[in-house]
Amino acid sequence: MISLRVNGVSRQFNGDPKMPLLWYLRDELGMTGSKFGCGSGLCGACTVHLNGSAVRGCITSVEMAANADVTTIEGLDAKGNHPVQRAWRAHNVPQCGYCQAGQIMQAASLLNQNPDPSDKEIVDGMAGNICRCGTYQRIFAAVRTAATEV
Amino acid sequence: MAAILNISRRDFIKTSGAASALVIGANFVPGGLVSEAQAQAVAQPNLFVSIAGDGVVTITCSRAEMGQGARTGIPMILADELEADWDRCTLWQAPGDETKYDPAGKDGQNTDGSRSTRHHLDVMRQLGAAARKTLEMAAARKWGVSSGDVYAKHHRVYNSRTGKSFDYGELVDVASQIKLPAGELPLKDKSQWKYIGKDMPGVDNFDISTGGANFGADISLPGMKIAVIARSPVYRGKVKSFDASEALKVVGVEQVIQIPHLPDDKAQEFRAMGGIAVIGTNTWSVMEGRKKLKIKWDSGPNRVHSSRSYNNKLRKSAKKGGVEVRNRGNFERAIKGASKVVEADYFVPYFIHTPMEPPAAIVDANSTPVRVWACTQSPNETRQYVGEALGLKKTDVECWQTLLGGGFGRKSKPDYVCEAAILSKKVGAPVRVQWSREDDIQQGYYHTASAHTMKAGLDSNGKVVAWKHSGAWPSILALWNPAQKTGFGIEYGLGMVDAPYDSVPNIRIENGEADVHIRVGWYRSVNNIQHSYAQNCFAYELAAAAGRDPLEMLLEMIGESDNMDLAKDGVKEYWNYGDPVEEWPIMPNRLSNVLRTVAQKAGYGKKLPKGHGLGLAVHRSFHSYVATAVHVVVHDDGTFTIPQVDTAIDCGRYVNPEGVLKQVEGAAIYGNTIARYGQITTNRGAVQQSNFHDYPVSRISNSPLNVRVHIVEDFVHLRPCGVGEPGVPPYTPALINAIYEATGKRIRQLPIGDKIKV
């Protein structure tokens, strides 16, 4: 039995402790905001926060999240108004939108750790998240905007 | 798991206020236009716009959204003509049914080929006008005045004599009784447009930014099983034998089932490939189970397919040529008389789409009708192939589209939906098939590999007098005809036969043969990518050979004609993206115009520091005219960065400028992946790449972050043209020409990689 908190709610999990958080969230809890992109920690579509820091849900097991706080895109802000989410909408970032939950969670974590990142720190901080629609320049601009508000 | 029902339908009834809605539907005639628009008081599904008693307008969206902006742009057209308040409009995503939801009657709801705006501008305006006219007539009736005394503006109808007004919602009861007059509906004058031509943010932005948007794998049904499938590493290979005993020991795995391979005489098309399916209660378990399968494969004849030898065959075939695709003047005679002859070969490998969302589909094959939820570009072909897989008719299958996490052409091929259908039938429960990234990269429909032999002659003034392009590639048509050895009209029409060098008096274009050993399919911009690359880079080589400026050379070759007629060059059936050349001619003057524009915007001709280069390329595709200027900096260690990209696009009449900007910005990044990394190789028939570590794509750290898009308005009065794809083809040649300007190095084979080998 593994205990953890997901978006502030206590949860118990009896299944395979090696199950990645991504599949636990999606298949067991029905929280589909975190996305499957590569299964190998290469694309960032599954990014969630573990005790406030970004991790890749597809290679972080439930076991590794034992007794920890997990935050997903659904729980980043009760009304969807985290400064990063607002900046994403202000810059009209999304195209298909599939990678954006992971991008937003990555950006929120980046700004949490470094509220005033340099251009290079933004690029380095976001380089693990792939967007095939090519929204990078808007992502970059949105992170800069969000940084003025956090 | 949460049970998800037919949400779209429920949402519609909710938003339309059930029986008291004004619903504008349309009857369609084959091939086209609305024959009659009528107001009805019932919530029939063949509607395009409905207005509820509270004034909420529900607009039917019958195009797939894959990031190209259709769910924003197409409804904008209708809302504009309806004089609706955008903030009081909602969308209803139509299921697949071309008899009801293909108002233009042109593409059966297949969202592909950059067609949505150009095929729907007129009809969405008419539907919006029908609704507006009905509301105006209702207001006139309520006031007892003539319809000439009323006008609609921003969700209200006004009495022009008294200044009194009704909200649209207040008119629904009367409007639902009105029969529209026959004949042409008056459309708004362009000067009155309130949304068309103005920036609109994406309608799904809030849901996307909060994790609430539904994609292909986000739908769950009660009792649903999850499946992953092991497929032959080699195209059309077969299972010789398999042992599932270890897989079945994985907790959560319930069954292992074989999907039969296609009979040898059955073409692949969009059918399921066959393989061994592992089925269970959650995705992790079935993925773990799949790793434990022991399968012996019979690779079959495609085991001969190794890139090293195959690519050389393509090169030889390109050199040899064969099928005459276009013949202007007399190339052979002109080349003999030329004072200088230049030749160069180019090669482009296979690519794969890698949309961020790997294919996924949910099918309940045991319900009537069969129900499908899928991230598909093509809901009606999905119904057709799913029906076939189940021994049913297309009309026995219902298909609901989710949002697509990227499409790029991959998701117009519903093989993955067929897999879910076959498994659902066998298991007796709804099944979700989930593709992994490895499946996506190794079992895809590949952008074709191609070889190009270019030859041209210059006269003593450095003018191009003869141009020849001979290419060879495995054809998409082999999906239907496995013996296909050459390309065909559609492939020729994707930037090859229509090479825009209209001032060159002697042009010859040929196509050599190629065997097909893999699923070749269309990919964003399709063959335009390689033709634009070979043409634009070779034009730069000619300029260097002539000692001339490449911009001046390109402009001279393209010329200023407003209609390049391929029929004069012996081209019998020019495809023209499926549209009439009378409405969408090839206009070299528009190409020259965007090229001059981009050169000016990018500061072409300025002296640049050492290691810097500015390269140009220009290409027409999907009727749009696009020129790109890439500014590259090549560092001492051979790595390179791209501080600025300028792209000028002339897409005729456009709807959402913000949408155009985003597509063209994204196209540069898509092109950057192609240029730097695009390469799938095979060894003994099997694809050698598997995930983003060995099939890398452009990341924020190696992408241009300063892509400036310039919408050229000079021809905005003409027909709308494609936007989703045309930005891609000029990027790669512009980058490679920039690298040449910076280093003197020609890159004649893609991809470039992260380092230029000087």
Provide structural commentary:
The complex is a heterodimer of chains A (150) and B (758). Chain A is globular. Chain A is an alpha+beta fold and 150 residues long. Chain A contains five helices and five strands. Chain A has a five-stranded mixed sheet, covered by helices on one side. Chain A starts with a strand and ends with a helix. Chain A has two domains: 74 residues, Ubiquitin-like (UB roll), CATH 3.10.20; 65 residues, [2Fe-2S]-binding domain (DNA polymerase, domain 1, Orthogonal Bundle), CATH 1.10.150.120. In chain A, strand 1 and strand 2 form a beta hairpin. In chain A, helix 2 packs across helix 5. With 758 residues, chain B is an alpha+beta fold. Chain B has three domains: 192 residues, Aldehyde Oxidoreductase, domain 4 (2-Layer Sandwich); 158 residues, Aldehyde Oxidoreductase, domain 4 (2-Layer Sandwich), CATH 3.30.365.10; 330 residues, Aldehyde oxidase/xanthine dehydrogenase, molybdopterin binding domain (Aldehyde Oxidoreductase, domain 4, 2-Layer Sandwich), CATH 3.30.365. Chain B is globular, with a radius of gyration of 27 Å. The chains are: A alpha+beta (150), B alpha+beta (758). Chains A and B meet through helix 1, helix 2, helix 3, helix 4 and helix 5 of A and helix 6, helix 7 and helix 17 of B.
